[in-house]
Amino acid sequence: MKLSCATALPALFIASACLGTHVSAEPSVWQPSPGQVQIPIWPGAAPDSQSVPGPETLRDGAVTNVTQPTMTVYSPKGKNTGATVIVFPGGGFQVLAIDLEGTAICDWLTAKGITCVLLKYRVPSIPYVWQCDCRPHNRSISTPSLQDAQRTLRLVRSHAAQWHVDPERVGVLGFSAGGYLVAEISTYFKTRLYAPVDPADQESSRPDFAIAIYPGHLSVGENSIALNPHIKSHITPQTPPTFLLQNEDDHVDRVEDALSYYMGLKAARVPVELHSYAQGGHAFGLTPSKLPVSGWPHLVEKWLATIGMISE
């Protein structure tokens, strides 16, 4: 498997290299749109805290050096379906593409009556190692990020009544590295990765559904559909229904990543839907194009209806 462009570039240039934008001269800190509030997911320091190379920074839609993870809750517009989607932006566990694969996704979901929870999880994090700007173990479990994801699932369920959501219709959606995080939380929900910190941690961290868009870190190698053993060993019939999408010309995270996970889920008789297109590349988010893959949000909406998470 080829690594993302993030593997070869210092953090300063990740957003411009991966997203095709110009690097701004002065860094800033990400803030949600007016009226939205970031909520720290840990009451104190996050578990297993690691050092990062500098302060949290936003450059051209990408956040890095996140040591205090937060969630931002976006309420649905119009009729509330009761469903919730927790969004994991991608970025190679080095940065978070928080605009392209975060806020823009929440705008789409809330317009469909779905509560969106945007998770700003800890990066840089394994399998990326910032000290060497490398990934010596590219298919490792991303423990700090997965801890943040587990905690967020539990917090959403513990606030279900307050936020007017159904605790049995809470799912996850992730892109690229965030797609790998989707696979991790779908298979490691019975593995408690941190000590409980409050009553919210009595809630389940199992997603009710999972959506992985151009996921990475799943195939053991280029041109192989053998599945990452860290994921394969934890797939069970209780792994949630899953929607997968990846393009054949994705040369960052390859189509074999989605195919390998699809085959692993199928073997365990987990309901799974796979869409693969000849063209479309990587890191396109909701960017419109003439290519068929740009219609993927409609496929997700239809799939959510077929599994009973939203109405037709």
Write the layout of secondary structure elements.
Layout: H1 14-19, E1 38-40, E2 57-59, E3 62-64, E4 70-74, E5 84-88, H2 99-111, E6 115-120, H3 143-158, H4 160-163, E7 170-175, H5 177-187, E8 209-213, H6 229-232, E9 242-247, H7 255-267, E10 272-277, H8 296-306
Parallel strand pairs: 5-6, 5-7, 7-8, 8-9, 9-10
Antiparallel strand pairs: 1-4, 2-3, 4-6
The CATH topology is given as: Rossmann fold
Number of helices: 8
Radius of gyration: 18 Å
Q: Tell me what the CATH architecture is.
A: 3-Layer(aba) Sandwich
Structure description:
This protein has 312 residues and is an alpha/beta fold. It has one domain (5-306): 3-Layer(aba) Sandwich (Rossmann fold), CATH 3.40.50.1820. 25% of the residues lie in helices and 15% in strands. The protein is built from 8 helices and 10 strands. The strands form 2 sheets. It has an 8-stranded mixed beta sheet, with helices on both faces. Strands 2-3 form a two-stranded antiparallel sheet. The chain starts with 13 loop residues before the first helix and ends in a 6-residue tail after the last helix.
